[in-house]
Amino acid sequence: MNPRKITLLIGSTLTVMSGATIAPSLPQIQHTFSDTANVELLTRLVLTIPALFIALGSPLLGALNDKIGRLPVLFICLLIYTIGGTGGLYLNSLMAIIISRAVLGIGVAGIMTSFTTLIGDYYHGDERNQMMGLQAAFMALGGFVFLSSGGVLADIGWRWPFATYTFALVVLPMVWMFLKEPSTNLSEQSDLTKTNFLSHEKILVVLTFFLGLLFMIIFYMIPVQLPFYLKEIDIESNTLAGIALASLTLMGGIASLFYRKLKTRLTFNMVYAFLFLMAAIGYFIISTAHNYTIVIIAQVISGLGFGLFMPNAVLCLMNMTPFRLRGRIVGGFTTAIFLGQFLSPIVVQPLVKFTGLSTSFKMASYILFAIAIVYLVGIVKNQLKKNAKASSTPGV
């Protein structure tokens, strides 16, 4: 694998670190600042506030990608990411930490938009399919490493996981040495010839944005709520909590590695049906789990589904987006994804208080299952239409 691909893939792991790395520290952070009003909600916002600022910043940074170039945005945002991410190492109030996490979010917005757009710029066809799958795999596998280390570091002290954000300073020189601003030469990028943006494609883009929003509200129940659920079933170790969280991303990474082969056999909608069904099964098992082993099994099953969502959704958007709008479309999808992350505790926490964690996971499984059924019904209807058309065609 050449240095450019390695840089794109390693750099993409920074977006995973934006929230979940500090998830095992949440119970300790809540305890440390227990005298702060609304500490339960504010503690969860430490994890998810970056997502709000990623959502707010991504459209602007996506437009800047199209206007001034991918690399200038990327360089600046890597520095912002480092400054904001390490705030928890030395800040002594919960609100100050939340503000530093908001700064981190601006950095993540530019990093995710730039790296994803660069992959769309540099590659096309089957190679793009492969890179989208690899990007999701590296993000998931990176999540496994960072979550596991976050759990171990949290057992030393709740501040230590914030030190992992200095990893951006490793990525920065790699970007400088191995990436270049993409060419707009038609001979180098065959899909630059696509300049039209059809009405049904615009509708599909909006639907994909909404699906990303809903997906992340449900998905982010794992890093936000699972550490507390583990405490309920008498799993006190932060290291075990980190491993449980990391097992989801590890299995997601493995699933992503097979995305390219899966996509050659299945349509986008078929992949969606499969991934939502797997996620539904995993969440239902979590809702019934009473020991650590069952939780891990549920995480593995959920990971099979969740690992396929990002490459499937992003590739679908890339394939129908003109080059001149690519940064803005990726920025819009990034907004939807991270707005879902931010809204997750706000939407879910009242449900948790009213019904409990177990029932909340079960209700989420029902929603995921319903989405899978919608896609399956659509697939069957399309197949029946194709069969009817084929049977009515003379000579068939």
Describe the structure.
The chain is mainly alpha-helical and 396 residues long. The chain has one domain: MFS general substrate transporter like domains (Growth Hormone, Chain: A), CATH 1.20.1250.20. The protein contains 16 helices and no strands. Helix 13 packs antiparallel against helix 14. The longest helix is centred in the C-terminal third of the chain and has 36 residues. The protein is globular and about 70 Å long. About 1% of the residues have low confidence.
How much of the sequence lies in strands comes to: under 5%
Overall geometric form: globular
Q: How many H/I helices?
A: 16
> Helix share of residues?
over 70%
Question: Which spans of ≥5 residues are poorly predicted at pLDDT below 50?
Answer: 186-190
Total number of β-strand segments? 0
- If classified by CATH, what would the architecture be? Up-down Bundle
How many domains make up the coordinates?
1
Strand count, sense and barrel status of the largest sheet are: none
The CATH homology group name: MFS general substrate transporter like domains
Tell me the structural class. Answer: mainly alpha
Radius of gyration: 21 Å
Q: Overall mean pLDDT score?
A: 84
Distance between the termini: 47 Å
At CATH level 3, the topology is Growth Hormone, Chain: A
Order of helices and strands: HHHHHHHHHHHHHHHH
CATH level 1 name: Mainly Alpha
